[in-house]
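note to self — DONT lose this again. spent like an hour looking for the file last time. sequence + predicted structure for the chain T wanted, 258 res
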Amino acid sequence: MDGRIVSADESVVPVDDSAFAEGRGCYTSVRIAAGTPRFPDRHLRRLQLGAEALRLGEVTAAEVDRALAETAAAAFVDGEGVVRLQLSRSPGGRPRLVGIPRGLGADRNEWSAVTSPLHHAGEVLPGGHKLTNRVVLGMAAELATEAGADEALLFDFEGRLVEGARSNVVVVSPEGFPSTPAPGLGAVAGIALQVAVERFPEIANGEIPRTELDGAHEIIALNSVRGARPITRLDGRPVGSGKIGPWARKLATAIASE
């Protein structure tokens, strides 16, 4: 925190920090594999764009690289884990960079999901930034865990799919065509989704009503920590065949090899 390693019980963020006082902050979660961060340039760009949009001040590549490397080295003896890098603004107007490590935890090859009872609020700030102001996503994730599911899918007030509580979503139609919710609906501009669309430009942006998910051939959750995870059950019912489909396999391979 602020350039030094501190233990979790000693770390203190002032009450007038922008993330605490206003919810004005951005973050990115970086997968550390064999001691090396995945997608480092993309994570840096995400933080810098978020800092610019939120008027947090400038953060350099050297600062981000140092925070990521030192946090990972101090936290992960075996070089495996996740570091959340969060940017906010100190009372003096300077950006505050905090690295928070966590273990990978359990991760199944196939996910189940529930439909969130909470509506997605839509785009808070143009650009798909990953904001610390995420109360609806956080509560949806908590409800999914309580239901024994891996993910919660959020829809807007018009019943259109926006994103998962911790992932972007790709839906494959019965005809085999993949699509993802249009960015303007308010989803985070996920790094794994960026990679997927670069590799497979046929992934279309569109409006996906809740009813289309009932007949989907595949539903796939994407994030930069887990990669691509097929959602094989939704609200207790099988998705498609109830097994991992071809698009899930292709996306998993593409993201893993980036």
